[in-house]
């Protein structure tokens, strides 16, 4: 059942290209227009949406953080992302024109379910992004967009995360399409890129041996830090979460711009810091800023592990370890940049003798609040 792999997690990491392709299948036609028939919220209502609120937990929350960038940039609709467990307790402002998106692999996470119930009681429409057919969250939502990752068994979420990202991009593009906002060359490029992205995830998977080797060399460490900017920030948070739950190491993700506001004090000789570098093309300001962040931490002794796109030469002098990912439009980069972090955490867990598929104290779906 593990298909020749030692762990379900390894199998599920390897299945990501297919999971991504399956989630896109039949949803974008040859002319680049989206058909999301399953989203049973009438187009007229989607045109009226004036705020999107995303609720989710854990890894699904990280997908939501990334979705915010895509939704706001492509549709210009304000978008908030909130941990489902915090949501209803702060008396959130919800209205009929608020679209609430609940993201959940299992469809049974109690915090997310309670958040969506609260949203519906306040008169908002809820769209679920879910991987489990017929589970409670989609049943209680107004509409559902299923991710087609197939069953995810390992407690640590991998392929579900990538497909949640794909579903979020589809929702953002669909909202843009029905509202006629921001439909231009950039969107066409994104749609073309999505058609190739499964192959690029596969390409990343083929180059992971040095990442595994690096992970093994860090097995006796206590701390790993992660930095990112823009969509690289939630990727950093996801890398840190994977490491906590699998390797039981102290791992923290920071927005690189926050370094000077505190976290840089943590940098001492030899501390491994993973940095997710955005594309130097497009928003090059972001790229330049992160290159100087890498210089700053390296000058203070950090051992820098840099994830950067192919052809980005500016990072080379400052990277103790360089992990290459294919060039993609900035907003899609999490689909390729997260994969090395999953492999890294899985290998570290193995090297530390931890149970990979069933980390201590954790359950696959958290059905209590
Ligand atoms: O089933 P869900 O997507 O609602 O689960 C949410 C979180 O419990 C889940 O993503 C958790 O954080 C994973 N163990 C992370 O790998």
TrEMBL record:
<keyword id="KW-0963">Cytoplasm</keyword>
<feature type="active site" description="For Fru-6P isomerization activity">
    <location>
        <position position="364"/>
    </location>
</feature>
<comment type="subunit">
    <text>Homodimer.</text>
</comment>
<comment type="function">
    <text>Catalyzes the first step in hexosamine metabolism, converting fructose-6P into glucosamine-6P using glutamine as a nitrogen source.</text>
</comment>
<keyword id="KW-0315">Glutamine amidotransferase</keyword>
<keyword id="KW-0808">Transferase</keyword>
<feature type="domain" description="SIS">
    <location>
        <begin position="42"/>
        <end position="181"/>
    </location>
</feature>
<feature type="domain" description="SIS">
    <location>
        <begin position="214"/>
        <end position="359"/>
    </location>
</feature>
<protein>
    <recommendedName>
        <fullName>Glutamine--fructose-6-phosphate aminotransferase [isomerizing]</fullName>
        <ecNumber>2.6.1.16</ecNumber>
    </recommendedName>
</protein>
<keyword id="KW-0677">Repeat</keyword>
<keyword id="KW-0032">Aminotransferase</keyword>
<dbReference type="GO" id="GO:0004360">
    <property type="term" value="F:glutamine-fructose-6-phosphate transaminase (isomerizing) activity"/>
</dbReference>
